[in-house]
Specification:
The chain is of the alpha+beta class and 405 residues long. It contains 16 helices and eleven strands. The strands form two sheets. Strands 1-9-10-11-7-6-3-4-5 form a nine-stranded mixed β-sheet, sandwiched between helices. A two-stranded antiparallel sheet has the order 2-8. Helix 6 (82-93) crosses helix 13.
């Protein structure tokens, strides 16, 4: 068990380290916030040219910067009560199909004598119409010893294999939705929106033991982004608390006098600039302009035939006091003029979900497997092994934990 008094004592010993780090970081992010505000009135083409972002593969602002007059697009709506907010959200979502997939996994590890694991991915599709009914689906998959241990040459651990398989199934579920919603324009429907509860960008040029793993993850995402583009169905990679530093990297390229910093984008967007200026994302519902996202370690599959990035992002303030969420969005959505409509649907989902997209929240509830589910899985596998004369048993330590917890 955790002893509260020991935690407090350990924290008190390191209090000055925390305070010193916060003082230093506060000054850094405040200065970066001021430099971000200084983009107001500048043309996106000028920023791209001066930063050298294209050659250095840094993120850069889209032409939304020209029309918005700055890096932030204010929301503009105000409500006097949550009931008013919900009415706005329901009107925004009415007759718009939204979708989310999320997963969980069970990996007994050394508690089981036979390598085995399970992945469960749930999907939630909501038409938001009077006639239509929401749809839930669950995909359950068992990973065999050969799947878990048969990739030693690729250096993945069994735990990584389980996580990768879950990631691939989630991506495939979103792809299936994109294919089902193809032709929504011809049918006169509102733009559907799919949520992927993760980033849409994974480094695929890494060196070392995780190269094969990252390549497979990147491949799944590249397929998803390409299919979104081909079907013209928007998808949003939702990251509730991102530590990405794409905007910070561009600001460093534009301002050579800035010292190196560990500040990340979400901190900069919520930091007060020097003086009395508020944070760039000061109000609920405000968002940044659309940014084209480049990184040096991305494979060519994340770039189109012109060499331009296929994925961009916006940051959206979804709470009154926390850091903004990052929304990874395919670049074609910006080119089609759908960014504000898609972000509006995300805002509405967050109103219904009290700060988090309701579609993702519902998929997560359907997918999650808790400690009791893990025990049940082990019992079922044990019965299966006995029925088929397989050598499978659960360690006494695991059985003891199950009785005590």
């Amino acid at each position: 068990m955790l002893y509260r008094t020991h935690v407090i004592s350990a924290l008190e010993k390191t209090r000055e380290d925390f305070a010193r780090f916060e003082r230093s970081l506060r000054g850094e992010v405040g200065e970066l916030a001021a430099r971000l505000r200084a983009l107001a009135g500048r043309a996106s083409a000028e920023v791209l040219r001066e930063s050298g972002a294209r050659e250095a593969r840094l993120a850069y602002p889209s032409d939304e910067l020209d029309g918005a007059g700055g890096a932030v697009v204010p929301f503009g709506e105000t409500w006097r009560s949550h009931e008013e907010a919900r009415r706005w959200a329901l009107a925004t979502l009415r007759d718009r199909v939204t979708f989310a997939a999320d997963g969980s996994q069970v990996f007994p590890g050394r508690d089981a004598s036979l390598p085995v694991a399970a992945v469960q991915v749930a999907s939630f599709e909501n038409p938001h119409s009077a006639e239509g009914r929401y749809f839930k689906d669950v995909h359950f998959e068992v990973l065999t010893p050969e799947q878990l241990l048969g990739t030693r040459g690729s250096f993945e651990s069994p735990e990584q294999v389980v996580g990768l398989r879950r990631f691939e199934i989630e991506a495939r579920a979103v792809c299936d939705f994109l294919e089902r919603r193809t032709g929504w324009r011809e049918r006169g429907e509102r733009a559907p929106v799919a949520f992927f509860d993760n980033t849409l960008l994974v480094a695929s040029l890494r060196k070392g033991t995780d190269r094969h793993l990252s390549q497979r993850m990147a491949g799944a995402l590249a397929e998803l982004v390409a299919l979104s583009r081909a079907t013209e169905v928007p998808v949003v990679g939702y990251v509730d608390h991102s530590y990405a530093h794409d905007i910070a990297g561009l600001l460093a390229a534009l301002n050579r006098d800035l010292p190196e910093t560990s500040a990340y984008d979400a901190q900069i967007l919520r930091a007060r600039a020097s003086g009395s200026a508020p944070a760039p994302l000061a109000r609920w519902g405000d968002r940044t302009v659309f940014w084209h996202c480049q990184r040096p370690n991305l494979a060519e599959s994340f770039f189109d035939e012109r060499g331009l990035p296929l994925v961009g992002f916006v940051y959206l303030q979804t709470t009154s006091d926390g850091h903004p969420a990052r929304l990874d969005i395919p670049a074609w959505v910006h080119e089609a003029g759908l960014v504000e409509e898609v972000v509006g649907a995300v805002r509405a989902e967050c109103v219904v979900g009290n700060g988090y997209p309701y579609a993702i929240e519902t998929a997560d509830e359907a997918a999650v497997m808790n400690a009791r589910d893990r025990e049940q899985f082990l019992r079922v596998v044990q019965d299966f092994a006995a029925q088929h004369d397989l050598d499978f048993h659960v360690s006494r330590k695991a059985l003891s934990k199950g009785r005590r917890r």
